[in-house]
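Predict structure. Chain length: 245.
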Amino acid sequence: MQTYLDELTAWRKAQEAELTKEGGWLSVVGLFWLNEGDNPLPPALRALGKLVRTGESVRLYTPEGERRLLRPNSTEKLTKGSVTGQILQRGKRLGIRVYDSESPARKNFTGQHWFAPEEAYRITATFHPYPQGKTLAITNVLGDTQPVPCPGYVTFPLDGKLCRLEAQGTPSGLFFNFHDLTSGKTTYPAGRFLDTEKPANGRVVLDFNRAVSPPCAFTEFATCPLPPRANYLPIALSVGEKKTH
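Prediction complete.
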């Protein structure tokens, strides 16, 4: 038991370090959508020039006459002092998300809030693959819906109920976006996220002590996906991360 608690504690510390790092979600201070044609940069970056959108392309025009193509959803950054901006694409929208390493949210953060660990909620579920493949219609907080590959689903008994969750694939395993009876009460209203390792021998470990709030719990400038209706669980999971704000 102590080994498990030590591992969970270390994992939670790593989660908080990721959240609070420079460029983490607590550094986000703005999100500005771009219109076709000329767009001023956000105030803190305005001295760098202007952005020009042409269809799905965005270019920076600097005061010196330089034209620089900026790729959406890449690691390319515009930087001035403690402020950086990155171009992102969500559906047909193109925008610039702004980060500030000196943001009040980052400087004043007092930590995530967690339920006490319950090893009984670290369970082994049965993985059911979709041999022909499947997609889930995932809608984000902006109202955009897109198909997302779904490699399969898991089933598991918990709190007297047979539960089922549809999975999304990640490079290292599976991702579950779910809602339960604590959502909007003691946990983030929209739902929570859970990552797992890849299935092995038809089994996958779901550790709900590692269920986390989405980025939208920490900034209004995130564009989080919402859980599909199939992932609304009929049980209360009073484990993992609580509401932070």
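Summary: The first strand starts at residue 28 and ends at 33.
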